Amino acid sequence: MAPRTDREAGGDRPPAAVAVVCLGNTLMCDDGVAAAVARLLGSRLPREAALHVQAHADQTLVSILRGSSAVVVVDALDAGAPPGAVFRFDPDEAGVTRTRSHNMHGMGLGYALTNARLLGADPRVVVFGVQVGDVRPAPDTLSPRVASAVPDVAELVAAEVRSMLAQAS
User: Fold this and answer.
1) What are phi and psi of 54, to 5 degrees?
2) Element at 19 (helix H, strand E)
3) Residue pair 21/73 in contact by the 8 Å Cβ criterion
């Protein structure tokens, strides 16, 4: 069965045990890498996982963090590495929750997680970041090296979700 998406997760359904949040602006070349990962994840995630695709971190992300016991975030980043490099990290260990948001369109992952915690939530969060190469305006386009990382990231995320679900049961 296909995973629930953010459009289907509302109503009287219980919150997903694990949420996967793919963040990124598909109008800005490699910043849309998470949306490409989400397209592959649809058939790889178990039913117990909810898939959310968002242009940026905002109050919706806070709600997702509050409603899930574990969250996997996929996002583009600039760590000065070669384009397409993949990073897996805990946002607290990486210092993300102690930094100011540098996102002009939303609150940023660090702020969203801090706000969710202030509201009493404390889900386990794992981030998969993909090093960007090009963030110029280019709708629905990825640079070749970033595009080549998408299948690997989708498999890493699916494996992480399966592991989180196994630990929760």
Assistant:
1) -135, 150
2) strand 18-23
3) yes
What is the torsional sign of CA 111, 100, 150, 155? negative
- pLDDT tens-place string over residues 76-101: 999 999 999 999 999 988 887 766 55
Placement of tokens 């939303």 in the chain = 106
* 3 vs 22, more confident: 22
Which helix (H) or strand (E) segment is 20 a member of? strand 18-23
Amino acid at residue number 25? N
Ordered alpha helix ranges (H), the chain: 33-41, 59-66, 108-118, 144-168
Contact criterion met (CB below 8 Å) for 36 and 145: no
Q: How far apart are CA 100 and CA 104, in angstroms?
A: 11
Instruction: Please report the beta strands in 56-138, taking only residues with DSSP state E, as ranges in sequence order.
Output: 70-77, 86-89, 124-131
Residue 147 CB burial class (10 angstroms; 0-12, 13-18, ≥19): middle
Convert the pLDDT of each residue in 8-38 to its tens digit. Answer: 444 444 566 899 999 999 999 999 999 999 9
Q: Please report which confidence band the pLDDT of residue 159 belongs to, taking 50, 70 and 90 as the band edges.
A: very high
- Provide the 3-class DSSP secondary structure of residue 157: helix
pLDDT (0 to 100) of residue 102: 53
